[in-house]
């Protein structure tokens, strides 16, 4: 009864369009643990009648917020479906049912906003956090609309007046830059774990995005202004040379400024360092807001890596083998004298899995290896030849066992 009351309140908040992200998580958990028929034909049916009758005491919410919320609902429904491989909670028909209900709630909310003239003028693009575990590549447009991108798909992105902005051919999204603009208009491309994607900006600059990455960039760069983009995650840049318009990549508090060059930038939230590896050309690194003409900037030459430590606010520059840091763009996983805790995070992003080391012995083990098309199991078996361990693979989780525990018993308990 307590769960039923809680579900009732959360459904009402979904209808009202006032549900928070935390409450949405709670709603999906309750749905997942409840009888689907009771929910579908009981509580939801009651609220669905309110929607059809127009009884919508909706809190004002801009269109972009509604679509972001809808996307989160659909992601959670998909995740529930994936986790229930043996005993599926939602058959496909029910997934479509829930998706339709969620979409209709928010569509009706959007109509309500329009009729009440509550449209908000947004001068800055809505920035959403990339959900690296979603498994879905998304493109967020300037107006807040979110489109899902299939790596095998083809599409054209146009302005409201019908002018071509960008076109997708398979694993590449290319911007044309054909239409002149007097203000910056941003798109944001989000790449989940287990995926990679190519982006060609309007100036011809090529960007290869690694898994778990997000990049915000102008649809078209403006004449007389720097070409500035914003990155979270990892990307390899091949920048088109333009002396009059320096290219700048922002990685939180650090900026990397170039004219025309090739470099790799890695900036994941879980990493202590913002890593810049220069392959060709020249780059200057400086803190956001700092004067480049003072001694606060640092310049790299090809073959060097700059590591900005986010904890200590210190910069370290040294000569490196650039292949170690760029092999990923050619499909390789290359490790050279790397500790397992560093390798583990790369494997998790590459295969969209989580690895839990219960043995407590592997984190500081050092490995040198190169992989390309191997499965995660084949990679772990290779590591086992150096340091023996046992593991179990459960769905998207790998557990490295404490060898003092019976593996079968441990697997059954989890």
From TrEMBL:
The record, for InterPro entries, names: FecR, FecR_C, Ferrdict_sens_TM
Pfam short name (any one): FecR
The membrane spanning regions, by residue number, are: 95-114
The answer to whether UniProt assigns keyword Membrane to this entry is: yes
Claim: Membrane is one of the keywords in the record: yes
Q: Single GO molecular-function term? A: sigma factor antagonist activity
Per UniProt, the keywords (alphabetical) are: Membrane, Transmembrane, Transmembrane helix
Domain Protein FecR C-terminal as annotated: residue spans: 332-400
Q: Please give the superkingdom of this protein's source.
A: Bacteria
FecR protein domain boundaries: 189-283
Kindly provide the name given to this protein in its UniProt entry: FecR protein
Organism equals: Arenibacter palladensis
């Amino acid at each position: 009864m307590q769960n039923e009351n809680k579900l009732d309140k959360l459904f009402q908040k979904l209808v009202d369009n006032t549900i928070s992200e935390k409450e949405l998580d709670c709603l999906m958990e309750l749905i997942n643990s409840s009888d689907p028929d009771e929910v579908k034909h009981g509580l939801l049916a009651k609220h669905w009648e309110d929607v059809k009758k127009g009884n919508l005491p909706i809190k004002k919410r801009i269109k972009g917020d509604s679509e972001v919320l809808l996307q989160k609902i659909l992601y959670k429904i998909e995740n529930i479906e994936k986790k229930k491989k043996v005993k599926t909670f939602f058959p496909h028909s029910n997934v479509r049912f829930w998706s339709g209900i969620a979409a209709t709630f928010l569509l009706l909310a959007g109509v309500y906003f329009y009729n009440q003239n509550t449209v908000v003028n947004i001068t800055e693009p809505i920035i959403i956090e990339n959900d690296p575990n979603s498994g879905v590549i998304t493109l967020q447009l300037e107006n807040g609309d979110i489109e899902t991108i299939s790596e095998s798909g083809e599409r054209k992105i146009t302005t409201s007046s019908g002018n071509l902005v960008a076109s997708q051919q398979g694993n590449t999204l290319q911007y044309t830059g054909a239409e002149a603009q007097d203000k910056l208009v941003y798109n944001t491309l989000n790449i989940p774990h287990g995926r990679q994607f190519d982006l060609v900006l309007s100036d011809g600059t090529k960007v290869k995005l690694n898994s778990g990455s997000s990049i915000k960039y102008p649809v078209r760069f403006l004449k007389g202004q720097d070409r500035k983009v914003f990155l979270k995650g990892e990307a390899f840049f091949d920048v088109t040379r333009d002396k009059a318009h320096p290219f700048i990549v922002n990685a939180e508090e650090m900026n990397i400024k170039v004219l025309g060059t090739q470099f790799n930038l890695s900036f994941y939230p879980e990493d202590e360092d913002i890593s810049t590896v220069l392959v060709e050309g020249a780059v200057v690194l400086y803190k956001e807001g700092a004067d480049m003409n003072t001694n606060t900037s640092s310049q790299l030459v090809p073959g060097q890596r700059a590591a900005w430590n986010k904890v200590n606010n210190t910069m370290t520059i040294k000569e490196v083998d650039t292949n170690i840091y760029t092999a990923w763009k050619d499909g390789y996983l290359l490790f050279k004298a790397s500790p397992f805790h560093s390798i583990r995070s790369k494997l998790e992003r590459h295969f969209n899995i989580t690895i839990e080391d219960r043995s407590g012995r592997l984190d500081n083990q050092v490995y040198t290896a190169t992989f390309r098309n191997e499965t995660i199991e084949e990679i772990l078996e290779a590591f086992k030849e150096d340091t023996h361990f046992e593991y179990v693979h459960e769905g998207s989780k790998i557990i490295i066992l404490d060898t003092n525990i019976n593996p079968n018993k441990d697997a059954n308990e989890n």
